Amino acid sequence: MVRLITHNMLACHVKNCTKDNFPLSFSDVELVVRPAPENLEFIQRFLPKLDWSALVDTARSLGDESLPEQMPDQWTEEQLKALHHVLMELHVEEGNMTCRGCGHVYPISNGIPNMLLAEHEVGR
């Protein structure tokens, strides 16, 4: 399943695609909300790994406005719960992820992104 916690780490790896290859843009998505057990300690430990700007832009492109523009210095429990929801409970079941740099489309089917590249697209 493509959750935003995973999406926040995906970049295009097409040969010679090194500009604007992150984050991948969602389109034609079927979004499903699946409740997940809260582990706010995990969310706090994961914060340094997040590209906050990319996460906020992606969440907003999917219709979720719950995250602040800037990452808070001090987190409230309510803010951590909102972040948990965005990272762990929003699932893209169907759709596409497109590279802004080269335009390569990574289809998502049944919650699984196809990140495989054709041989001519793979850098050596």
Automatic annotation (TrEMBL):
GO biological process, any: tRNA methylation
Pfam family, one: Trm112p
SUPFAM superfamilies, per the entry: Trm112p-like (SSF158997)
A GO term, aspect molecular function: protein heterodimerization activity
Domain of life of the native organism: Eukaryota
CDD domains assigned: Trm112-like (cd21089)
Membrane-spanning segments: none
Subunit structure, as described in the record: Interacts with TRM9.
Membership in a protein family: Belongs to the TRM112 family.
Record protein name field: Multifunctional methyltransferase subunit TRM112
Origin species: Kwoniella bestiolae CBS 10118
